[in-house]
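ok trying again, last paste got cut off:
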Amino acid sequence: MSYYYEKISENNGLPAKFMLSQCTDLTIPAHWHDYLEVLYMMEGELTAVVQAGSYLLTPGNLMIINSKELHMTRANGSVCYILLQISAEHLHNFLPSGTELHFQTMIAPADNGEVFSGLRQSLEHMLDAYTRQDNGYQFFFAAKLYEFLYHLYRNFCTLSPSAPETGVNRDLERVTQVMDWVRNHFQKPLTLDDAAASLAVSREYFCRLFKRYTGQTFLEYLNSVRTMHLYEDLKNTDDSITVLMEKNGISNYKVFMRTFKKLYGDTPQKIRSEIREYFSPELPS
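nice, full thing came through this time. structure:
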């Protein structure tokens, strides 16, 4: 499993992935995917880093994350937002071959008047249809989805975005190179000096570069990757937490517990207990 490239699948019968997300103090480490991602904030605050740009989402804000853009999000307390993801392949079915799409990252209601109101209403209609799931709701959902994309395309899209500066491209490539390196060697004892040396840059420069593009320190990202792999083992094996920590390169129990709670909202023992309870049907009395 890769925690740099995220795999996404559509909801049953719908041309997109759609959900109402509610969470508390949840961090999603830096990653990318082939899907256009839309976040519409309903409650709370969400911090996001997209391609080295930092953003704060508050209720009523709309964020667009383009396909293949490196991004991370962190919930500041309790948050609630609509999440919509539609594949780049699906979008290109409606456009001339070779067309490149690039949408504006942040869209605020105060600056866009009626257009923003239309985007918000389309999302709210999709949410209502998805929640109620009346007979044939998929048709209505799809109609509102394409209405949303039409307004987004007409008002907040460029077909040929200006190429980023060469230095930005190089730095982003360096960061993703380190993320791949972590993904392939996370079980080994990796250090900050090792990471900087892999790019032949100073420790100080590397720290600034990595934090700028991922929104996390290198050690925070490394701990997240290791903890995510441990979570998969937790679900699929009966090995003890100690054994799983050793397997996934985790040596500091205190840091591990803090990271696990930040990612999954509870202790690994509680999560495992809930998984076992869910998959163990009650025997008839």
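cool. The beta strands are 17-24, 27-31, 35-50, 53-57, 62-65, 71-87, 102-103, 106-107, 157-158. The radius of gyration is 21 Å.
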